[in-house]
Amino acid sequence: MTLAMDGAPGMPLNRAMLKSARRRERRIFSGLALPALVLVACILLIPFAWLAWLSLFDAAGNLSAQNYARLLRPAYVGSFLTTFKVAGLVTALCVVFGYPVAYLLSQLSARAAQILLVFVILPFWTSVLVRTYAWLVLLQRNGVINDWLLSMGVIDEPLALVHNLTGTIIGMVHVMLPFLILPLYASMKAIDPVLLRAAANCGASPSQAFRQVFLPLSMPGLASGIALTFVLCLGFYLTPALLGGGRVAMWSTQIADAVSKFSNWGAASALSVALLVVTAVVLWGVRRLTDALSFSAGKP
Length: 300
Fold this sequence. Notes:
Layout: H1 2-7, H2 11-54, H3 66-69, H4 74-107, H5 110-121, H6 128-139, H7 144-151, H8 165-189, H9 193-201, H10 206-234, H11 238-243, H12 251-260, H13 265-296
Helix pairs in contact: 2-13, 4-5, 4-8, 4-10, 6-8, 8-10, 9-10, 10-13, 12-13
């Protein structure tokens, strides 16, 4: 009791010293982060502010909301819906193909998983342009796939696999699949296998243990992969432009046409700002969903 009373007068001083140390540590870390913050401001915030400024002026240079009003025209609304349709289909197919691959990698030994991960990362070593032209060779009417199907008697005439939505989806799934597999694999690898063994000891079958234990715990990683894939698809340009053949009108192609064909920077800027706002809303929604899934999975 005496020791506690003797030490009591020094407690406010200790608290003040701790607060001062925390403030000093924050200043140090803020100083270390300052170059990165300046870089982000230069390559992200300043160009965005420039685009937002350009979007407020019409072709004559007058302050106007004309560029945003034209977004309600049927052509822009149609391309907006096509953008979300393509992004949704590509993301859904990446989930269908990527989840089993990530699950297989998480269940293999470390050495086997590292070997197979090389094949997942291998497409990054090749330019997207080269991969897209490779799909053009494979999917065209006289391409490898149509020749193979014709020789086997599966089809009587070549299929239209390119310069349409089908070819665009195929090429984009090939490009985007690693972006879903990698964060999903990292999330699955962090799941403690003891939990599955505990479920088995409680009488759960392997399928029940997967549905009730493994699948819920992998949901935050799946949500992150879906968000990354979907957002990248929203602004993807090269593959839809080449494999779509101008018939798949996404907002990215609309932005490029507004600049290259019509030199209308105001319209292109308005499209870019609107797409960025939609992307931010999607990321915010996924963040809320991820937090909810993490909470339901028992993660802090």
